[in-house]
């Protein structure tokens, strides 16, 4: 008798590895390992108990407390402001790099590409301390008013996000049919019209996906921000870090849940747009 | 009549090494349907792209309607192109696509709207203006590309492999339609294709290219019946090619000795000597049990070694005792198996002496 | 692709701004700490650039070497575990029914998008002595005791389980760091493996099975050699960020689970010895570059692994 499985009425074929129990076990264990900590964390943010262990009933109190926690809300505001500005700049710079690398041959291009990829590959800690040293050495003033006092964090974030944005937009451009550009030219478009009417519209899904990536990268960053933020410019992850060091509390759970939902949502939208964009070409 | 396109000693090489187009000169006449035919890599597309302005010739000149195009960028040339992938802009509606070229020319919106609708009617897509390209079939997208190019009323319409992305049935219908469209609008069409059937059935004149050189430029019938060289004879249609030696040359006629066949007298103008190729189309020959009589008949005997059945016709392969194989296309005129068609039979292959081709090169 | 000199204006207008940014706000800062790494600390903020290599020599004293060794060990252990977990997971996803494939991949990626800090924090919440794992164990422990008491065998339960429940010390040690590194970096391993296996023609596997090999033999003799570039790529892509981890050892590790990043941070914050911290940063970067170069060489030998844009 052929063994039947959960996955359908057909008996398992020899390469249906997912239907073989050793693999299924590893797979299930991996997913439990990946999700149980996050899901319990999210679930317990609704637990009506300070001790955070035994389920004592559903409450949204901690979300209320979260919104009344001025320090945390200021940090959150800082994070959003930083993410917004770094996204805008990263998009412009990333799109330029993408066009440069997609469009042109030039001497030492492999070296240029490699250097452009450095911010993606070097350990975050190295970039963090480099930024710390850089701003200290050029005498960056740390008594500026909000939001200008966030500028150094924004600069650091742009430096590590725009190469990611460039990668995404370049991948989108790689799917561009050069005949479209030629068609526009053939119909009378000049250099500028070709960009305005054909190339930039084609880049749009990449711009949206790249923007969302830049936003989440900036919002999520801890290490680099840790080295560039001062007492007046605490971001959400830096604030959570200082809270986590002391204890596990429902407020931190609630704060984390908010951040998880935001980033997962943003990334999912970005991915969806990217897929939609590539499916259509 | 001044040519609408004059190609004068055009050469194109990439990086000084690869010679894509090698000193080509030809004239395209106003109002004709012209085809550039050849295998991939023969330079036909490069030549078309040089007319459109997307490639710059390494040497030579291109004149459009008598004007030198050397320093004219593609967006200022009075020609428009239908791209192989159609390149219909995916983010614009059909109407916006068709209107794009008019917008670039600064045609007023109201004038443009009328011309767009007219052009869509011409390609049988009236009322499709508000659709997006991804709602159209491949054939419809091609019509949009056609309308988009024609609406600008170009002096010449360039078509790069226009039918290659369509399936066989649709392709045949489009062949006729393009032909009719060209007759209606009266614009010169220049089409690049690798499909000989397409070129023969659609074009008024065909230039066959190989390795960057035009091998022959002629109307379709001349190209098929009087190929000028072995490449054209072999590339267009099927051909039995034999190698022979000229044994006698008289006025209007030569005698060629072919191993395995013997001496064949062939009508030929001009002088010929030494090694020479002679050829006969498979459908010009026939197979018979008895040796056909007649002074103008060439006949050779052999054994049927293979019969390939194709429905409308059968391809019969006859091998002579000297090892030469001749293929003959026999139409299947009746539903029963003809008596000619038996493997291993001894049969005569014959054709009219006048149908024999002489290929000097 | 066009030659840059044919379209100089466009080339320069898209090329200059990002290049300027990269140089001014990335390469210059890096160069600065590179120069610092050859300097000497003179007072609280003063650094004299004396082009000494003392800072690098200090990195080779036994205490620091021990931390380097420990970092390597933790990162390698985590990478190996990721490989052994990631290979079957990737294999399962590749041969999953197509409607499941995207969903499973998304399932692997989803935790990856959540904040690193939050993921680490979630592990703390689960693993600490008053955390959910211990709580669950305690619950089972209590039930078992009740069960034994019911049959009047309370003594046996005490003998087996001890006088009372002892919470496991799951946090603040090397194992917790390894677990944390695996938790955080597993997607880095699964994705390149998936990409490599996805490209593998399944008829190779079928041929192997057809010729009489079992599934494990097929895996070892056919899948692993053919997917080797992807496997190596996955190993290196996992190893690099694991080695440079700062948060994981900082939050999950004990006093002796410091990794390289931990001591770099210390030099720049509490110890305030920037030249030494800079030297350590560059040593970490050199190891990273070495690993990347290895990957490039392997990729060239085994054909592209298709991960670059």
TrEMBL record, chain A:
Q: Which CDD domains match?
A: TM_PBP2
Name the GO terms of the biological process aspect.
Answer: transmembrane transport
Report the residue ranges that make up the ABC transmembrane type-1 domain in this protein. Answer: 76-270
Q: Origin, by domain of life? A: Bacteria
Q: Which PROSITE patterns match?
A: ABC_TM1
Write down the membrane topology: Multi-pass membrane protein
Location, primary (coarse class): membrane
Where in or outside the cell it occurs: the entry states:
Cell membrane
Residue ranges spanning the membrane: these are 21-46, 82-104, 116-138, 144-169, 206-227, 252-273
Write down the InterPro entries for this protein, in alphabetical order. Answer: Bact_Polyamine_Transport, MetI-like, MetI-like_sf
Keywords carried by this UniProt record = Cell membrane, Membrane, Transmembrane, Transmembrane helix, Transport
Q: SUPFAM superfamilies of this UniProt entry?
A: MetI-like
Give Gene Ontology CC terms. plasma membrane
A Pfam family matched by this chain, by name? BPD_transp_1
Provide the protein name.
Answer: ABC transporter permease
What family does the Swiss-Prot or TrEMBL record give for this protein? Belongs to the binding-protein-dependent transport system permease family. CysTW subfamily.
UniProtKB/TrEMBL annotation, chain B:
Q: Keywords, A to Z?
A: ATP-binding, Cell inner membrane, Cell membrane, Membrane, Nucleotide-binding, Translocase, Transport
- Classify the source by domain of life: Bacteria
* Job of this protein: Part of the ABC transporter complex PotABCD involved in spermidine/putrescine import. Responsible for energy coupling to the transport system.
The residues the entry assigns to the signal sequence are none
PROSITE patterns per the UniProt record, alphabetical: ABC_TRANSPORTER_1, ABC_TRANSPORTER_2
Q: Which family does it belong to?
A: Belongs to the ABC transporter superfamily. Spermidine/putrescine importer (TC 3.A.1.11.1) family.
| Pfam families registered for this protein in UniProt | ABC_tran, TOBE_2
Q: What is this protein called?
A: Spermidine/putrescine import ATP-binding protein PotA
Reaction equation(s) it catalyzes? ATP + H2O + polyamine-[polyamine-binding protein]Side 1 = ADP + phosphate + polyamineSide 2 + [polyamine-binding protein]Side 1
Q: Which CDD domains match?
A: ABC_PotA_N (cd03300)
GO CC aspect terms? ATP-binding cassette (ABC) transporter complex
Gene (name only)? potA
Q: ABC transporter domain: from which residue to which, for each copy?
A: 5-236
**Oligomeric and partner information:** The complex is composed of two ATP-binding proteins (PotA), two transmembrane proteins (PotB and PotC) and a solute-binding protein (PotD).
**Enzyme Commission number:** 7.6.2.11
Q: Which GO terms describe its molecular function?
A: ABC-type putrescine transporter activity; ATP binding; ATP hydrolysis activity
Q: What EC class is this?
A: translocase
Automatic annotation (TrEMBL), chain C:
**Record-level GO BP terms:** transmembrane transport
In its UniProt entry, the species of origin is given as Pacificispira spongiicola
For the keyword Heme, the answer is no
Location in the cell reads: Cell membrane
The residue ranges crossing the membrane are: 20-39, 72-96, 102-126, 146-165, 177-197, 218-243, 274-294
* Protein's UniProt name: ABC transporter permease
- Ranges for domain ABC transmembrane type-1: 68-295
> Is Cell membrane tagged as a keyword?
yes
